[in-house]
Each structure stands twice: as structure tokens, then as C-alpha cells.
Amino acid sequence: xxxxxxxxxxxxxxxxxxxxxxxxxxxxxxxxxxxxxxxxxxxxxxxxxxxxxxxxxxxxxxxxxxxxxxxxxxxxxxxxxxxxxxxxxxxxxxxxxxxxxxxxxxxxxxxxxxxxxxxxxxxxxxxxxxxxxxxxxxxxxxxxxxxxxxxxxxxxxxxxxxxxxxxxxxxxxxxxxxxxxxxxxxxxxxxxxxxxxxxxxxxxxxxxxxxxxxxxxxxxxxxxxxxxxxxxxxxxxxxxxxxxxxxxxxxxxxxxxxxxxxxxxxxxxxxxxxxxxxxxxxxxxxxxxxxxxxxxxxxxxxxxxxxxxxxxxxxxxxxxxxxxxxxxxxxxxxxxxxxxxxxxxxxxxxxxxxxxxxxxxxxxxxxxxxxxxxxxxxxxxxxxxxxxxxxxxxxxxxxxxxxxxxxxxxxxxxxxxxxxxxxxxxxxxxxxxxxxxxxxxxxxxxxxxxxxxxxxxxxxxxxxxxxxxx
Length: 470
Ligand code: ARG
Known about the structure:
two-stranded antiparallel ribbon; binds arginine; 6 strands; mainly alpha; two-stranded parallel sheet
């Protein structure tokens, strides 16, 4: 069944029949790509300015078109713009509104351009802005982590491998591990930005245009740092989106791991932290419950972003060059990845400062489980025992302590000596948690002094980034 006459469609000239209503709904993207409107208009204004610069349009024509586009943008921002499905996408909606507003001259906006290079430009402008927003959220999160790490630079806790208590560490050191992850995530986005910030305009449909365009003018006006080097590639590849989604997936992976740890630490079995009531939720049936739902939702939302990445990879893989309509499917995944990452980073900005650390519980957990066994082996090595032999001696000793139901530092010197005659009274310095962490006093180590140093280093790094941003 037919609806609107195809004469309303900018491409209607070749068609004698109206579009089937189902096809119109099936092919439309305006319901979601209208989000690109500000970038579409920005791109069009730069395009006509360039056309005027090279003499394809007059300055007056270019001015009338930009004036009309700016007015349309205000209308969109005020929520007064009427989006029409029969006009398919954001580009044709804006072009039609332009012609309605400024008359015949509006019909010149699409000179030497195609929706193919137009949409690629819009997406790159959009993503460039959003990468900037995400980088800034990462920066703020790095800052809250550094604050927590400084506050807990000397707090003792068990460090885990295989989720079994392994060796004593400081909580500040653990939190700085999170910081390192976010630091790399931010750098990764920076790398990706280099390849996002490239101008496709001028590629037109795929083969370029015979108008005497100057692409470097458009690039300068739009702040792109390079021109796409091949018109066919410029309109066809979405690898910059895939790369972003991969970087976004890694951010989510890291946030998900943080969440898993917060959830464990909050559980009564650990009891290492509490989270402010404002950042937890209750149960509708069990009155005693206080649940870490914010952290769980971040962990859960990670799946969406992995899905967005998989969607993008799959959309791209079967496409012959150059542009294919498959690419219209890139938008919802990209938007979802951007929105989800931003939302979760915002959640963490509130979550981390709401953590109350239970130092006593962490210390108590570190005091159980022979966490300084490696230190004792190192002690024997210092006394000249080869490490493998020392490992075996301490293994036997731990087995003995387990049978006795005591910790190593509670054993008498005479008992310890039974396992190796080299053990002397100074061994007790090696058996304490404090001694263990303080001795790990090298770059990247867990000693409180090193944690404070790493905090200072992180603060310097963050200051340079904030200065760059400003
Ligand atoms: N809505 C389209 C997209 O998102 C715009 C480009 C359409 N180009 C075309 N030749 N049909 O990809």
C-alpha cells in the first residue's frame, strides 16, 4: 500500500510509483539518526563555505544556505522541528526543511556531495565529540581513584590469586591497579581518535566529484586533522566505529571487573567495604538486604557493549566496496556503546567516593592464611638456602602450622628451627604483614611509600592532561 507521493523525496525523480509503506518504514533511519543533526548541519555549513571559496557557489548563496541551516538547528534544539519518516533520514529531512525555508537556493546544498560522504562525516564529527566526553569522564574517574588510593596507601589487605589469599598488599596499591587500567583506556581512545578525525567529504558517492573542490578547506573548517586518502574507502569503511567499540568494550570490561570486586568486598564473607546507602538498593521482600545494584548493573551492561562491537564487526564483514545500505545499521550500536559507557563511568564517579573502607576487616583477613610464607622463603634464601629448597621447607612448615591451628608468627622459635636450623630470632620481622609490604619497595611495588609515590606521579600526570583539556 502506498502513502506519500515520491515527489516529496529528494531522489523521487526516477520513480513513477510510490514507496510501499512497509518499505518506507523498513528503510527509514530518521527515528534514530536525527541525533546526528547538529553534526549534519555543521558539515553542510562547512561544505557550502568551501563551495563558495572555490567559486562553485556565490558567497551570497553560501550565506543564505548557512543562515537557513543555523535556523533549522535552533528549531531542532528547541524541539520544534517536524521530522518526517517519508524523508527517510536526517540528511533528507534537513535538506527538505532548508528548501522550504530559503527556497530554490537550498537545492544547491548537495552540490558535489552525496549522502554517503555526508553520513560518514556526521558520524566522525559525532564520535570525535563523544570520545572527548568519554575521555573527560575517564579523567575524573582516575582522579577519584587516586584520592582513594592516597587515603588507603598503608591499609593492609590480602592480595589474591585464584581468589585465594596470596600475599599481603596495601589497599591503595590495589586501587592504583584500577587507575592504570583506566589510564590505558583513555590512551586507547586517544589512539583511536587519530583515525576518527579524518575527513571523508569530497568522496561524494564513491568516485569523488568533478567540481573543483578544495577538501583541505572543509577539513580546516571542521577541525579534521587529515583527508581520507581514497574516496572509495572514505565512504565504505566503518573501522573507526569498530575500533571505538573495541575501546569501549575494554572500558566496560575494566568497570565490570571493578564491579565484581566491589560486590565481593561488600558481601558479608569479605566485609572489606561498605557503600553509602545512597548508592545501594534494597530488596522488596527481604527487609535486611542492602544490595550493590549499581555495580551489578555496570557489570551487566558490559554485555550490551560487547554486543555493539560484535554487531559492527558483522555489519562490515560481507560488504563489497563501496557504500552499502547495511551501514545504516551502524548507528544504533554506536549510540548504544557511547551512551552505555558514559552512563557507567558516571555511575562510578558516584560509586567510588561512596566506598567506606573497613580497614579492620581487611587486616583480619590478611592475618589469616599464611600470607607471608613467601617472605619466609625469601628469608631462608637470604641465609644462603637455594630458593627451591626454601620453598619446600616453608611448605612443610605451613602444613605443620595448619595442623597446629596456628599462624606462623605464633610458633616458637624452637618449633620453627625444627624445619631449618638457619632460622633465627630475626625471622619474626619477615613474618609480619607490615614488614612484608614495606619490603616490596621497588618501582611498581606495594610498599606504602611506593604507593604514595605512585599517587604523586598520577597526580602530576592528571595535571598535564587537565592542562591539555583546558
Ligand atoms: N541513512 C543512510 C545511512 O545511514 C545515509 C546514506 C544513504 N545513502 C544511500 N546512498 N542510500 O547510511
